[in-house]
Design goal:
three-stranded antiparallel sheet; about 190 residues; alpha+beta
Length: about 190
């Protein structure tokens, strides 16, 4: 899968012809190219996609916050959203491109901004979510059809819900919670 495949999926949902590349000079390609990066990043922020997680030890900066926290750590340049910061119990806050904290060492699990060179990391469900989001975002510009735009929004929201369910089954902690819950349901 690549970014053009995702844009073409959005165009197909809108009943439009496919493009050869996002860099094409057709109206549809220009609209998709203009909106693609912002929509992709917004979709990545909307839920903790398993295929878009990274783990790092953020660099401790030599500067210190003016007040409230003791340390500053550098966020990765491809940072989109925090999933987890440890050690547990550490107070932290994201401000700009920094993590302010009271711990001099942090472990960061985050959603990263998948670029074109790493598009193969996008699983089918995330690709479908980006396509629906892109179709929803560009629908009126491309088709001038408000009812179709509403359908694309519903498709996006349903794909997010499906993604949340799938993600919940790809984690041993969540698996234990699901198993306990389903066992409790069966007992009752």
């Amino acid at each position: 899968m690549n970014f053009t495949d995702i844009a073409n999926s959005a165009l197909i949902k809108l009943g439009q012809d496919r493009i050869a590349a996002l860099s094409d000079t057709t109206n549809n390609a220009e609209v998709m190219n203009t909106r693609f990066e912002m929509v992709k990043r917004a979709t990545l922020r909307d839920k903790p996609w398993q295929c878009a997680k990274k783990r790092v030890l953020p660099a401790l900066l030599v500067t210190e916050p003016a007040f409230g926290y003791t340390y500053e750590h550098q966020l990765p340049t491809d940072y989109i959203r925090v999933i987890d910061i440890t050690p547990t119990g550490t107070f932290w806050r994201i401000e700009g491109q920094k993590i302010l904290s009271n711990s001099n060492t942090l472990e960061l699990v985050y959603i990263w901004d998948i670029d074109e060179d790493n598009a193969q990391d996008i699983d089918d469900l995330l690709g479908e979510a980006i396509a629906y989001h892109l179709a929803w975002d560009t629908c009126v510009k491309i088709t001038n059809d408000g009812a179709l735009r509403d359908q694309m929004e519903r498709g996006y929201r349903m794909t997010l819900a499906q993604g949340a369910y799938v993600s919940s089954t790809e984690d041993s902690v969540n698996q234990a919670q699901i198993t306990s819950w389903t066992t409790a349901i069966r007992v009752v």
